[in-house]
Amino acid sequence: AVTAASVAAAVRDAHETGRPCRIVGAGGWLDAGRPVAGDPMRIDVRRALHGITEYVPGDLTLTALAGTSLGDLHEATRAYGQRLALDPYGSDEGTLGATIATASAGPSASAYGTPRDQVLGLAFVTGTGETVRAGGRVVKNVAGFDLVRLCTGAWGTLGVITEASVRLRALPVADETCQVALDTVDDSRVRSAIDGLRALALPFEAVELLDAATAGAIGLPDAPHGALLVRMTGSADVVRAMRASLATIGAASEVDPASWRRLRANAPTGSACVRFSSAHSGAGDTWATARRVAASAGGSAHLAVGRSVARVTMARAAEETDEAFANRVTVAIGRLDDFTGTVVAERLPASAWHCPVLTRRRGDAAVHARLVRGVRDAFDPGRVLNRGILGAAGGEP
Length: 397
Known about the structure:
397 residues, alpha+beta, 8-stranded antiparallel β-sheet, 5-stranded antiparallel β-sheet, globular
């Protein structure tokens, strides 16, 4: 049987032989991140490292093995009136370990933060096969160097996550999702809607601005120009007040809460996805850029209003060749050349990773490269863990 000990043994063997490892959770995002180099040995975390190892409802904390699916965690915590407020893009079939490793944050991150804000402790196997525990299992634990945040978002290049402790939230009494259909695509009027929402200063759990293609893909009715999708949670009085306040933005109608699940899944395997962000003051410009890039590439776009993070997804047509799809994606990303914010590629055709816009923004300056190399040397000197997936342009740091 595959256990945390056997994972450590496999990594030690890889370190000694120099063979790279490909760390796999549910396997739904193997086309995300840069391609793993070499002929990697597959380490399937989900197949064996599955299950809750400790759950203390009174402390609102839970510890589970890394291969446990988010769906299983949601089901277990719901029985105690609690929830894990992680809703990464993809589906609830995704694993806890992969969510942490990729630092994937979905619509609710505006209210509850990213995985870095919700993970309390980790156990992981370094690239030399050593098992390390970082952080703790309680909210107040602050001892030691913050290896938890370092490993969160490292895409498994510093260690194979085997177990994680997370904080939980109480289930809200009321949970309602509304749509405010846009009556125009005019950028200035959409900016006014964004500013109006922020001026309300209300604790919406999630607010996503969707273009018409995204609204249609997730089944929102009567949104030919796009829509604002708003999730309101809390006490019944709070939710009622938030819905009433939406009237200042536009006519709000209740829609299927499953719209959030469909939004998260609106990037099937084989599609390309790039996200970009700016300061809150630039959210309107970020949205205008996202809409322009999506329209030019035949894709779809949405913006997390609370975080000013836009995502553009481009699906591959059935008859499209690998080369044609990669070219279309590369041209679309090239339109971000003048964008002054942060640009991050999530999923791309292999050749599109060499797009100049991305290589110039990877931070491959000498100082950055030395820092990255130093961290990698400490945890994975042989570069056996997901080799190449976070590699700098021109070579592995």
